[in-house]
Amino acid sequence: MTLKLYFDLMSQPSRALYILLKNIKCNFTPVPVDLREAEHYSEEYTKINRFQRVPVIDHNGFVLTESVAILKYLSREGIIPDSLYPKDSKQAARVEEFLEWQHAGLRLHCAMFFRVKALDPIITGKTPDPKTLQGYERRMENALGTFNDLWLGQGKPFVAGDHISVADLLAACEVEQPRMAGYDAIAKYPNIAEWMGRVRDHFNPHYDEGHVILNKIVRNKSKMAPKL
Predict the structure, then answer these.
(1) Going edge to edge, which strands form the sheet with 62-65?
(2) CB pairs under 8 A, 24+ apart, for 30-37?
(3) What is the CA radius of gyration of the chain?
(4) pLDDT tens digits, residue range 64-115?
(5) Is the Ribonucleoprotein keyword given for this protein (predicted)?
(6) Please, what's the largest Cα pairwise distance for the chain?
(7) Mind listing the pLDDT tens digit for each residue in 173-186?
(8) Domain span including residue 70
(9) Which of 19, 38, 207, 218 is most exposed by smallest CB count within 10 Å?
């Protein structure tokens, strides 16, 4: 088997797949694609992924985009173990229930807050409009509140029930993203805080490895923050 993962650790779903493949001891070839250097727009990469995004896998010549599609495919191929992506129909449906929800339910709002507050100012050199930023923060907090209360507040330790799954890893990588914009969800949402600890513990040391760039950015921002 030959499996290549095209990824950038600044990308939430890229981090999830990178951490997952490391965790399950999959013999894969990591192929970094530097988004900051616009390598995803190169002619060479566009031949691999016409959508010019990461992550992408190449499995024995079969090229596939979109993180959720990749997770489902790797499960069907027997690469992801049942312990993280159940084969049982009902248990798998619980995992996929979250995978379907998270695109617009969680990812959109966390990613847009990060983009408006942290990324756009770097690209444009302009400070975001406070009222506009407040709107994005409000929508993100509504999403985090839903995740905290309705997904994690049902007396179960993980997103899909009693056992950790790929849904937890994908969600954790999304919740981490706003930290680069100075917002840490664990400070406000107790269910998220406890759950994040369980997810990190399960996937470490690879969880920290996948977040090494993000954590470095967070530390640097902390050092630059004015002392009160």
Answers:
(1) 29-32, 3-7, 56-59, 62-65
(2) 30/4, 30/5, 31/4, 31/5, 31/6, 31/7, 32/7, 32/8, 33/6, 33/7, 33/8, 34/8, 35/8, 35/10, 35/11, 36/10
(3) 18
(4) 999 999 999 999 999 999 999 999 999 999 999 999 999 999 999 999 999 9
(5) no
(6) 56
(7) 999 999 999 999 99
(8) 3-76
(9) 38
Q: Using CA atoms, how far apart are residues 52 and 62, in angstroms rounded to an integer?
A: 17
Q: Note the pLDDT of residue 129.
A: 95
- Domain for residue 218, yes or no? yes
- Mention every residue, 6+ apart, whose C-beta is less than 8 A from residue 14: 7, 8, 54, 55, 67
Return the SS3 of 62: strand
Q: Which of 142, 147, 143 is nearest to 192 (CA)?
A: 147
Where does a domain end: 55, 76, 97?
A: 76
Residue with tokens 């495919």: 73
In a domain, 84, yes or no: no
Which position has the token pair 């959720």? 68
* Ranges assigned E (strand) in the chain: 3-7, 29-32, 56-59, 62-65
pLDDT of residue 154: 87
The DSSP letter of residue 179 is G
Residue 124 sits in the same domain as residue 99: yes
Q: State how many domains the chain has.
A: 2
Q: Is the domain of 216 the same as that of 112?
A: yes
Q: How many CB atoms lie within 10 A of CB 153?
A: 15
